[in-house]
Amino acid sequence: MASDLDFSPPEVPEPTFLENLLRYGLFLGAIFQLICVLAIIVPIPKSYEAEAEPSEPRSAEGTRKSKATGPSTSKRPKKETKKKR
């Protein structure tokens, strides 16, 4: 009775190159998604934001002058045409 049972492992074909590529691509995609979710959940340290602000000092007068010296957009009146029927 025990000799009738076959306990040998089933024959599984070797994975092809495309199957391996798909498997590792899915793993990399899952890791990338976890990194993105963690980047949203974990807050950015305040020291990085504090260092970025003083590197670009701006005064109120400087911003006003840059806006005034910018290229002015000339508005042309639209040409009105009647539809010919």
TrEMBL record:
<feature type="compositionally biased region" description="Basic residues">
    <location>
        <begin position="75"/>
        <end position="85"/>
    </location>
</feature>
<dbReference type="InterPro" id="IPR009621">
    <property type="entry name" value="UPF0239"/>
</dbReference>
<keyword id="KW-0472">Membrane</keyword>
<protein>
    <submittedName>
        <fullName>Mannosidase beta like</fullName>
    </submittedName>
</protein>
<keyword id="KW-1133">Transmembrane helix</keyword>
<dbReference type="GO" id="GO:0016020">
    <property type="term" value="C:membrane"/>
</dbReference>
<comment type="similarity">
    <text>Belongs to the UPF0239 family.</text>
</comment>
<feature type="transmembrane region" description="Helical">
    <location>
        <begin position="24"/>
        <end position="44"/>
    </location>
</feature>
<feature type="region of interest" description="Disordered">
    <location>
        <begin position="50"/>
        <end position="85"/>
    </location>
</feature>
<keyword id="KW-0812">Transmembrane</keyword>
<dbReference type="Pfam" id="PF06783">
    <property type="entry name" value="UPF0239"/>
</dbReference>
<feature type="compositionally biased region" description="Basic and acidic residues">
    <location>
        <begin position="55"/>
        <end position="64"/>
    </location>
</feature>
